[in-house]
Amino acid sequence: MIRIASAIAFTGAAVATAPAIVPVAIAQQGDLAAVQTHLRATETMTADFTQTDRAGKVLTGKLTLKKPGRIRFQYEEGVPILIVGDGKAIWFLDYSVGQRSRWPVGDSPLGVLIDPSRDISRFAKVVPGSDPRVLSVEAHDPKRPEYGRITLIFARQPSAPGGLMLQGWVALDSQGNRTTIRLANQRFGVPVSDSTFRFSDPRRGTSRN
Q: Is the pLDDT of residue 95 over 70?
């Protein structure tokens, strides 16, 4: 996991004016506020993604996001899997076996990315680390461990929403299965049609809005 610096040591003698040292708790509050700003300012986003599961299997594809509640992971050609958030639920669709699974947006770790009304300060914390250019934030609901947890990883970049560029995340489900997503070619504020989040039901082969 990529981490960021949590403190800076300063020592010296006969110093007329010492630099201000910001308490760690205050700095972390500022970082969480920046993450909240980024999430609320990001209305649409597209990116290429690379997914690595706990067994080391790697898949690639295209990510499309549109708030509130909509996200699509379109996997590379030949992969019969699709993940879509249609505004109300997250759907996992497996066309190879004709099955689908559904979770309310609020029950998925992805909810932190696609629900702009969520106050992450209530369930997220900054993960201390050694690289000040990188910010990692872990989010989970301790009252609902079955929802899993997600660690968002950002690079500090002034030109990005909230001064942060989302680099990817690590998701851990309640069974301990870890999935890592890395993003590239991120684009914000791009036009995204609502039709992007339609899909065919793998049980019937019919289209769903």
A: yes
Measured CA to CA, the distance from residue 116 to residue 198 in angstroms comes to 21
- Around 106, how many Cα atoms within 13 Å sit in the side-chain half-sphere? 4
List own/partner pairs for 51-58 with CB under 8 A and 24 or more apart.
51/179, 51/180, 51/181, 52/179, 52/180, 52/182, 53/177, 53/178, 53/179, 54/177, 54/178, 54/179
**Residue 151 lies inside a defined structural domain of this protein:** yes
Please report, for the domain that includes residue 69, its CATH number: 2.50.20.10
Instruction: Compute how many other C-beta atoms are within 10 angstroms of the C-beta atom of residue 51.
Output: 21
Residues 6+ apart with CB under 8 A from 186: 45, 46, 47, 160, 165, 166
**Higher pLDDT residue, 149 or 50?**
50
Residue 16 lies in a domain: no
Provide the number of structural domains found in the chain: 1
